[in-house]
Amino acid sequence: MKSEFLSMASHALRTPLTSVRGYAKLSHKRLRRYVFPLVPNSDPKLAKIKRQLDENMQIIVSESERLTFLINDVLDLNKLDAGAVDWSMEPYDVAEIVEHALNVCGNLFDGKPIESSMLVTNGIPRVRCDRNRILQVLINLVSNAAKFIPAGEGTVRGERIADSVVVSVSDTGIGIQPEDREA
Hints:
2 domains; alpha+beta; HisK_dim/P_dom; Heat Shock Protein 90; HATPase_dom; HisK_dim/P_sf; EC 2.7.13.3; two-stranded antiparallel sheet
């Protein structure tokens, strides 16, 4: 019953998501090819809008692709239950992953007196990881920071400690109460 529901729900989500992703890619391609060249870079306001539109379209496309991966994971719930998740391990730049997570969550900070920052130590080697899963964790942590601090600061750090690369998210919020933490 559960697997039947997951299969139907995943299919119902995947079909419109495929359309959204396809139209987003097509729109972004056409904006870059036909519209952006017509916008004069001499006007700082228009140049800023063009840059923001380009970044927003990139985020829409990449997040729709990430959502497709998440839906595929839901479809394979039996693998999750059995601890047999497929990992797509490749070398990635930590700063790029952190920056992408902050860009995705950037609008969550709009209108709030919250300063978000990224502190990634220079010289960190590329890390072999599953980029989409690391992004999922970082986006969850950053969006929680945006939701639960009314004002203050949220920081994503990346640093090399001994033979490891550590990425952390900290904020000036009240944190999780001890009784609500899992052991």
